[in-house]
Write a structure and sequence with these properties.
Elements: E1 21-27, H1 42-55, E2 66-76, E3 84-96, E4 102-114, H2 122-151
Amino acid sequence: MVPPVADQTLLAQNSRLRQAVAVGNVSGGSETNPRWAWQVSQADFTAALRQTLATHAMLTINNQAFRLEATLHDLEQPAFGLDMQVTSRMSYRLVRANDGTTAYETEIRRAYTAPFSSSFLGGERVRLATEGAIRENIRAFLSVLIAEEARNPAAFGGQARMS
């Protein structure tokens, strides 16, 4: 569920987010019930966020400036089908550690489709699509967060650009 580093998720060398984000309150995950569709546990969701921040050079080492709070609101999953598409809806809030105010907040909805060719088993395609939907959601969040820091550095403790 961890998105790879890409051009749109590449952190600038002088970014205020570099090694400055801790994972805070994460909610909304649930354990998979074998009788129902595949789910993502809160522990796995938290681990995916932590690993993503580490992969993208944002996870704090010892200079926490921000705390990331995230909520997995829902997963829209098919009951049956050939190509399985899952849509994730998640909200993110980046909080300043020094005063608890919000630096950035957004809600993102992303879909991912696991084609029939990815697995003969429908349950496995749902699992792949669910993991993909969460990965795409986290990737989209990183993209908009990095773009927002570039657009409005003062919100992240940086210098405002001169026009």
